[in-house]
Design goal:
- The chain is of the alpha/beta class.
- It has eleven helices and 13 strands.
- A six-stranded mixed beta sheet has the order 4-5-13-10-11-12, with helices on both faces. It has a four-stranded parallel beta sheet with strand order 8-7-6-9, with helices on both faces. The chain has a three-stranded antiparallel beta sheet with strand order 2-1-3.
- Bound molecules: zinc ion.
- Zinc ion binds next to loops.
Length: 329
């Protein structure tokens, strides 16, 4: 397997320091036949439950990914990425994240014996910093907005491998496993609501279901305070991003924005934006059902609520991935 530029088709080795093409294009993963990444390094990841529940008068399935080893779905990407990096003999990596991805990469790198340097924005929640530190990662706090942490990590990536959950296609090779699990659990869903920031779950679901042969409608959900995908998808002027409690998807300029929009479009899906009040209400409802997730995860439930209110046929198979544990915020 190797990386290939989505724009000009140039090939790059998995092991190199380049994380995008000389032409500026981003990488996709090219495999020969049914090539797969072996996963000897494990933290006990298992198929997460798909819980059948009724909310707002409609039947849904919660995909309980907040139950993964580090408390978020990012472990799907990290386990594949870390195992491949170990196989390639990479001993040190940099990554930038505002939380869940950083913790997950830190954990799996440590498990694989790889030293990680995680660049985080200054305002990263304490609970997440504590978790990243616990895994033995080196934390580099970068002042200013989220983008500054990316810039600093990319500067460091000139010398050290960039284990990015955004640029490195090996991460998406991992997040696609959610599609495979859902397929085994209930067959193909009709609709899957996906929280969308950098697109690691959205694109993972897209890749996974495409490989399986059927693409459900992907409904991408963003905060109305930070919604570049919504603006792109509906061809609206880009809005100035504002703070939101859904900090896990508050990404003002996702590098894979075009790919994300194309995936939603191909699926016949749509993009929704949700207010902080709607997110709070959805989170509270989940809590009262005994399910504790972080605010970012509640966006899909808030979106489903509005969707069902509009009178859409609720007999369809609707999946709501719950992506991160409430214990981390
Ligand atoms: Zn290129």
């Amino acid at each position: 397997m190797h990386f290939s530029c989505e724009r000009c088709g140039k090939s790059y080795p998995l092991k190199g320091l380049a994380y995008k093409c000389d032409c500026g294009g981003l990488f996709t993963l090219r495999k020969i036949g049914k090539e797969k990444v072996d996963l000897p390094v494990s933290l006990g990841e298992a198929t997460t439950p798909l819980l059948k529940k009724e909310i707002y008068g409609a039947r849904v399935y919660f995909k309980m990914d907040h139950m993964m080893p580090t408390g978020s779905f990012k472990d799907r990407g990290s386990v594949v990425l870390a195992n491949m990096l170990k196989e390639l003999g990479i001993e040190e990596v940099v990554e930038d994240s505002s939380g869940n991805a950083g913790a997950s990469i830190a954990a799996y790198c440590s498990a694989a014996g790889i030293k990680s340097h995680i660049y985080v924005p200054e305002g990263t929640p304490q609970a997440k910093l504590k978790q990243i530190a616990a895994y033995g990662a080196d934390i580099v706090k970068v002042p200013g907005p989220r983008e500054n942490a990316s810039k600093a990590a990319q500067e460091a990536a000139k010398k050290t491998y960039y284990a990015s959950h955004v640029y490195n296609p090996l991460f998406f090779e991992g997040t696609k496993s959610m599609a495979y699990e859902i397929y085994v659990q209930i067959g193909f869903p009709d609709i899957i609501f996906v929280p969308a920031g950098n697109g690691s779950l959205l694109l993972g679901a897209y890749i996974g279901f495409k490989e399986l042969g059927f693409l459900p409608r992907l409904i991408a959900v963003q905060s109305e305070n930070c919604c570049p995908l919504y603006s792109k998808f509906y061809d609206l002027p880009a809005a100035e991003p504002k703070p939101t409690i859904a900090e896990g998807i508050a990404i003002a300029e996702p590098p894979r924005l075009d790919e994300m929009a194309a995936a939603v479009r191909e699926s016949g899906g749509s993009v929704m934006t949700i207010s902080d009040d709607e997110i709070r209400a959805a989170g509270e409802m989940l809590g009262h059902m005994g399910i504790y997730v972080e605010d970012t995860s509640a966006v899909v439930v808030a979106a489903a609520r509005r969707h069902f209110k509009s009178g859409i046929n609720n007999m369809r198979k609707v999946v709501l991935p719950l992506t991160g544990s409430g214990l981390k915020q």
